[in-house]
Amino acid sequence: MKKRIQSVFLSLAITLLLSGMVACKSGNDHQKGKIAVVISTLNNPWFVVLGQTAVARCEELGYEATLFDSQNNPSKEAEHFDNILASGYKAILFNPTDADGSAVNAKAAARAGIPVFCMDREINVPGACVTQILSDNYSGCITLGEYFVETMNRTGNYVEILGLVGDNNTWARSRGFHSVVDCFEGLKMVAQQNADFDQNKAMEVMESMMQAHQDIDAVFCGNDAMAMGAYQAVLAAGKTDRIKVFGFDGADDCVNAIREGKVEATGMQFPKTMAQTAATLADKYIGGERDLPKKLPVAVELVNKKNVSQYGHFGRMDE
Questions:
Q1: FRET partner for 11 with CA separation of 20 to 30 A, picked from 26, 39, 125, 304?
Q2: pTM check: above 0.90
Q3: Environment class of residue 192 by beta-carbon count within 10 Å: exposed (0-12), middle (13-18) or buried (19+)?
Q4: Beta strands in the chain (DSSP E)
Q5: What is the pLDDT of residue 11?
Q6: Is residue 297 a contact partner of residue 277, using CB atoms and an 8 Å limit?
């Protein structure tokens, strides 16, 4: 699904309160009530865009919106839900921390009569939420895997840095990538390790991998934050002319790195599309509409040196 939305000017410089909660209000009267936006982490610009776009769209629709930061911590996420369920919110736009663990929170909201709309990450109990709006991670990584094979000329040793092991996106991306790359005997994965979608952890993981394996030719990272961390490690080791870096997300820093020749490619997700769609569907549900899709896939587009000029600001330049 390729859905074009109006560009929203976002500020990435937000102040995180110790509670992990940021109240976001506009000049509207918010006559429609309150919507909660719960994001897995705001320690990543991609998720900041997801959360802030959701807030902006809710406010455009006439709601008061509050942004909650779970800090990639299921316990913090549960605290947010306890607060939300006791505070009169009409809907929750939800970016979960864990596909299984977060289902408990979504089910509690459903029991309380508060509809939940998942964004980017899914939960493994679909009935607990009204709609799940998700990037087509598997197909996106098939395309990325094909470009990886082409760039590597079907031969070489590579490593993979995974995201959060409890996140379905981690495995959808990995499986999509391997469904292509494993078909070529000349391409050998010599190490695989998770770094929780975190840039600093990915840098440390890449450093360890390079120490253990002197003949690495490429690294595939499950998101762009980890790709940038891996690139920092490769740069520090003086191996930028040897090791090719591939990411996934479409974050601005990685797109710029592709433009500068530092990273080979990424998969462009569309956080603004997912966030605006979630807010719009929540508004329809609150208004009484019930015939809504259970799952909405959002297409992922390959970004490489050939087409990078078409992308930026977490989407296409023409959005």
A1: 304
A2: no
A3: middle
A4: 21-24, 34-39, 64-69, 89-94, 116-119, 131-135, 156-162, 187-194, 218-221, 244-246, 265-268, 295-298, 301-304
A5: 35
A6: no
